[in-house]
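User: Study the shape:
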Amino acid sequence: MIDGYLVGDREAVARFTTFGPELQAQLVKRVSRLALALQKRVQETKLSDQVLHVRTGRLRRSINSRVEQDGASVYGFVGTNVAYGKRHELGFSGTENVKAHSRLMTVAFGRKVKDPRQISVRAFSRQIKYAARPFLRPALAEMKPEIVKGMEQALRDAAKVAFT
């Protein structure tokens, strides 16, 4: 008969119990950095005339990032709350309702008007087909190698803290 025993089993269990929280902390830190990097890439490259031409800068200023945790999962979100951002990202085909408004009439029947004036335009609906001009998805795809490396580094950092 062979008998055996393990020396240091309590220490090993203690190290494994600290690995989970340490990995969670490392992931939160890494995902936060990556989300900010993605936000910066979208604002500085995709929304600065590379994909969409800047008119007011509202869409670019609206790009935001946040990190959420759900149990053991960590999620990074980058997006916009501007209504037309979705239309640019995904495209749109369908009926669009235009509200009543006023505009400055400068041309009538193909000729310049001598005295431009404000005119009222009634509400109307129109069929449109708007091609997608994505700015978020391509930036995420470009950052995929950097994201993978970041997750691997978070795992290594957590293991270094927990097992050394």
